[in-house]
Each structure stands twice: as C-alpha cells, then as structure tokens.
Amino acid sequence: MSSPPPPPPATAAPRPLDGIRILDAATFIAGPFTTAILAEFGAEVIKVEQPGGGDPFRRFGTPTARGDTLAFLSEARNKRSVTLDLRTPAGARVFKALAGRSQVVCENFRPGTLERWGLGWEDLRAVNPALVMLRVSGYGQDGPYADRPGFARIAHAFGGLTHLAGMPDGPPVTPGSTSLGDYMSGLFGAVGVLMALRHAEHTGEGQVIDIALYESVFRVLDELAPRHAADGTVRGREGAGTINACPHGHFPCADGAWVAIACTSDKMFERLTEVMERPDLATPYATTARRLAARATVDGLVEAWTRSMPRDEIVRRCTEGHVPCGPVNTIADIFADPHVAARGNLIEMLAEGVGPVTLPNVLPRLSATPGRVDRAGPPLGADTDAVLREVLGLSDAERAALRAEGVI
C-alpha cells in the first residue's frame, strides 16, 4: 500500500475550512468536484470507495502508469482514500461512526440506496444532529423521475441546454465538455455545503442539500424561462451567434484559427467599425435591432475582415480598439499563453506512483486565505489504515479483521 505524501510545511498559511471533515462517498464528478473544492481550502476529505475497484472515475479518461486516470488525479486532489464496503453491516457501522465524527457527508447514489443500507439521512442525523448531507442525483430526491439514472449528458438534454447547442439546421450537440452539468452541480454543491455549515454553526442543526444535475443546467439558461412564460417563445439552435446581440460569435481568420467577438452594445459595434476601418457601417447598423435584422449581412462583413489577417493580428487590433475579442484557444494555446502563466492557472506536482502531472490550479483566488493543492488523487485505499486508526481509534487487530472480511 502506498504511503500518503508528506504534510504541507508547518508554515503553510491556515485555510478557511481547516477543521472540517467531509466523508465523500460520491463517484464520478459532481459530488467529488464539490469536495475537491472544499479540500483545496482546508477541509479534510475522506474519499470512501468500494474495495477492489474504487470510484469508477478512476478508469474514466487517460490511464496513468498507476492504473487510474489523469482525470481522477485532478478531481480527487487533496483527498484521503479509504476502502469500505457500505453494503455490509460492518461497513455501514464504520461509515456511521465516521459520520459521527464528521461535519459533512456527500453522496450521489440513486435515491433510496443509502436508506436500504441503513445510512440514510435519518440514520446519520441520529448519530450527528449537526451533520450536513449533500445528495446529488440526476433528477433529485423526489418527483416522478427520482429513480431514473442521470449523467451530465442527460442533464444537458433534460435541462434545456442541448436543444440550444448546434447550428440552426443541424442536430442538437453536446455543449463543450460532456461533464459541464456535473461541474456546475459541483459548484452549487459547494455553495450549499458552506451555507449549511454556517447554519449548523449557529444552531447545531444539520440539513440535507438536494441537487439534481438537470436543475443546475436549467438555472443558468438566462431569460429562457421568463421569456417563454411571457410570450411563449421557444428558442432554438442559433449556431455561433445569438438572437440578443450582433456581431456576437466566432469568426475564422487567415491562418485557420478562430476568434470570438462580442459586441453587446451599440458603442462596442461603433468601435469595431473603426477597428475594421469601415466607418460607413456605423450609421446603417447603428442599433442592435438593425444589426439583428441584418445579422447574416453584418456577420458576413465581420467574417470577411477576420479572414483577411491572422488571428493574433485580429486580437491585437480589437484589443487596441477596446473591442471585446479573444482567441478560440486549443489546450495547446492555453499552455503557451503568457497570461495563463502569469496567473498561475496551471500547476505541476508529483502524483504518487505516477510522477509529475499538470493540473488546473485552485479557484476562487482568496487574498488572505488562499487554497492550495497538496496532493493529486491518491491510490485506492492509500489512507484506510491511517484514517481508521486516527479518526476511529481502531486497533491493528480490528482493522485486520475488517480486511479479512472484505469490508476494507
């Protein structure tokens, strides 16, 4: 069994969640992303995994020499891995004991699963009334669809985002990362946990945070709901543009690269005409309404201009002219960008049994109590003995018995 990495230096700055212990029994991305964020800011996250295989996310993505994946190394950062079979009575007892010594439990099983194992909300709050429980599922803990399985792709579709993604005359497509809904749900989960911890601190009472993946997607669709309620509008796929602003999209350049340009006000378009050296366009297309009425023409004029020179020259001219413009970056572009380097958006560290890995850095950036990444995702079960000894005081013999029974 691999040993855990050395602790951070004693001089390391304190973090806002120091002293908070979280049991992370979730798999894949949404729940684990919540706990990864909280771990960056000091929470002790104990990742509880099934003996033998662990979190299936360990096998999702590009495998490493250790056997699990780069995706897992990134999203299981700062966690301690404990193997524990929750389906066994002995495993359930250990989990319940750990919950009694923790502030937060995170899970994403199908609704009712933990209840069948004697580890539902009522069971856990009986041993820890101040416990906060984050429950993430495809459709939430109640409602007619609660029992349906759900992943981010399904959440994008059900939540209304997929219908908007793609060209007007083409099929709906996956919007960017197939896991976008998971990551958004993870962010909402982190907000929910922090608010619930604040409440528990004042009252001594815990609560459940119930997040459905599709609800996180639906929440970020700007005016779709009020617009439909107001006049029945059903927005469809709009390609690279939008019905709310023009020019506002992606435009090809002479070198085969692309730029994004966003003129969300009349003043911004006026500046663009100056950058394009086409002041004759400012009057006929002076207002958003006029530009939207002639969107194909306006976008065509902008495209003809962007095609006339390389991407970096387009970005330079727009930047100097105070027109919102940016490169459509590949990951190689991001690695080479001086701004990304200056902001420290990428970090390199040693992963146990793997070697150097590069990961996205911590967000958000706090000036007084910044987060940090102390450890990439751990080997399966790397911390089982240490956690059961330190947190529950289990002896060598007791741990050996659990291991012999296949519980850990």
TrEMBL record:
Alphabetically list the UniProt keywords. Transferase
- Superkingdom of the source? Bacteria
PANTHER family associated with the record: SUCCINATE--HYDROXYMETHYLGLUTARATE COA-TRANSFERASE
**Can you name this protein?**
Crotonobetainyl-CoA:carnitine CoA-transferase CaiB-like acyl-CoA transferase
Q: Which GO terms describe its molecular function?
A: CoA-transferase activity
The answer, when asked if Transmembrane is one of the entry's keywords, is no
